[in-house]
Specification:
alpha/beta; globular
Length: 203
Amino acid sequence: MRVLGISGSLRRGSHNRRLLRAAAGLLPPEAELVLFEGLKAIPPFDEDDEGIPALAVRDWREAITDADALLFSTPEYNSSIPGQLKNAIDWASRPITTAALRNKPSAVIGASTGMFGAIWAQAELRKALAAAGARVIDRDLPVAGADEAFNADGTLVEHDQALELDGILVDLLAQADQHAGPGWTPIGVQSERNTLLSASQRD
């Protein structure tokens, strides 16, 4: 089971990249999280270019198609989604009938150094993904105060946040499993592993 992780921040040391890596550590052996590294290269959406899209656009669409599920982690810029992330969604939503995002199981989480944990951006992102045809889980994970939200090993400091992240992953993998066929067994007791966990804004 392949989960494509997409950080809405382009910054190398982004807290949202750290949050995706924390998520990767909670996945079972049957699943892997692969970080998408090509967001910055995607050009602005232009309908005139749809006939022959840029290589970066083709790579983005292919990465989505090859994944069983998508996990977005977004910061919040001016109470909304980073422009480059919205632009990528626009590309992946076209053409409508064969869009890469169509019916793709997706979940949204987010982190910021502010006190609200990118909660508004997460709501906006879920709305945009749903409009693009993705099957979006109606859950969020606002990680506020992100400068101090992670342990040295990359796990989340707050146990409740780790539990919520694990629950989101369980829901995401279960939804993806509906389309994966009998070759993969969904996680029934994933949350039991949480007992082992340690008890605008920058992104």
